[in-house]
Amino acid sequence: MTQPVELGPKPLTLEDVHAVARDGAPVTITEAAREAVTTARGHIEELATAERPTYGVSTGFGALAVRHIPPDRRAQLQRSLIRSHAAGSGPEVEREVVRALMLLRLRTLSTGHTGVRLSTVDAMAGMLNAGITPIVHEYGSLGCSGDLAPLSASALALMGEGMVRNARGELVPAAEALAEAGIEPVRLAEKEGLALINGTDGMLGMLALAIADFTRLLDIADLTAAMSVEALLGTDRVFEPELHALRPHPGQNVSAARMLAFMRGSEIVASHRGPDCTRVQDAYSLRCSPQVHGAARDTVAYAATVADRELSSVIDNPVVLADGRVESNGNFHGAPVAYALDFLAIPLADVASIAERRTDRMLDVSRSHGLPPFLADDPGVDSGHMIAQYTQAAIVSELKRLAVPASVDSIPSSAMQEDHVSMGWSAARKLRKAVDGLTTVLAIELLTAARALDLRAPLKPAPATAAAVAKLRETVAGPGPDRHLAPEIAAAEALIRSGALQ
């Protein structure tokens, strides 16, 4: 069983998010966190009885914050907030995203800066540990005042309302799933409704998952690039460390070293290393792969820095300070996360673009240095990988569109009270789609490069690239007459996602 993730004074890590969201790790609330939550709740209950109105405790919300709410209507105020804000629409969001946003909201609740009751914290932890996943919809968040509609869907389930998926993946009423898990639905008290929804947790969760995915795909890109360079009779000398030391970007040096290691011991590379070789320089898509992949690695490193800061943050409005004061703030604005999400979409598109160019080169008889047209078994009768490159090109074109930033847009809401928003949720959703696109582009390069290496026989590829070909050949046959290609692309995608090529 995956080790529990503790929620307390210690910040979460990207690995913690992955463990809970994808691996189903349980969560526990530390004693220090329990004490902090109890102390902060005491401050909220004092303010609830005070004559002076406090936002989120005894007032309305957003543009309606000017209305003072009498004590006998405040429980209804919190329930109405959740019901009205659970206004999402569109397709169902992935389970891992919902679990990530629940974990991150729970972490903020556990800091003792939101003023929720300990029973509410325990109920939310119970939902996560029982595998109950609220139904969250694609549209509804502007990435400011928090991911309001997505988090409200989660809070609605905590109240025993709306629909969820249980641990078996069945769509059931929330009340039924809570009862099965022995969890009492939460009857929200002062401040709790607002605390449950006023965070950047959805976009941050998707950033954390995208960082893990893109890092893995960059490792794959180094491998498929090395296979392509080898298959195209390119040189490995451009990846030597002394050349990359002249431009000390960390990611570039990592990718160059990896590509050099992948090609070490190749009979194919050795076959054209002598003085008879007249090729002075390889094309940019081969020679400059470490520069492109490396710049992407450095961008991921920056995004990870942003994510780490957010994982150490308390996102709520208002917040309960250490001295008991409850203060309004703007920390719910998603700009820091939105920019990082948009930033990642740019190098992701470019890594796919350079991979497509390498693939196309292997299929062009005028540039492939002795390989058959389109790597076809009987060119003219067979088309080989011709249309696989079309698929790559279509995806790369889409990735370029997805690289257009969402965070430069803003549509005012809440009667102009919320007059500038981040659109970070939208940035995160398009990045997830882009990650899937890059996976397919690299899968097609893997298929094509493996076939090209096979066609270089009797010369043998490097041990590392040969191992990748052998792994692929467990599910995809080698060169031969045309076959249904779509299942082979899907098999290569599955191989990449499995981690077996790492």
Descriptive overview:
With 502 residues, this protein is mostly helical. It has two domains: 5-199, Fumarase C, Chain B, domain 1, CATH 1.10.275; 206-498, Fumarase C, Chain A, domain 2 (Up-down Bundle). It is 54% helix and 5% strand. It is built from 19 helices and nine strands. The chain has helices at residues 14-21, 31-48, 74-85, 95-109, 118-129, 148-158, 174-181, 192-197, 201-231, 241-244, 250-263, 267-270, 284-287, 289-311, 335-363, 386-402, 424-455, 463-472, 486-498, and strands at residues 5-7, 27-29, 89-92, 133-134, 137-139, 163-165, 171-173, 319-320, 326-327. A three-stranded antiparallel sheet has the order 4-6-7. Strands 1-2 form a two-stranded parallel ribbon. Helix 9 packs antiparallel against helix 14 (289-311) and helix 16 runs antiparallel to helix 17. The chain is elongated. It starts with a strand and ends with a helix. It catalyses: L-histidine = trans-urocanate + NH4(+). Keywords: Cytoplasm, Histidine metabolism, Lyase. It is an enzyme of class 4 (lyase).
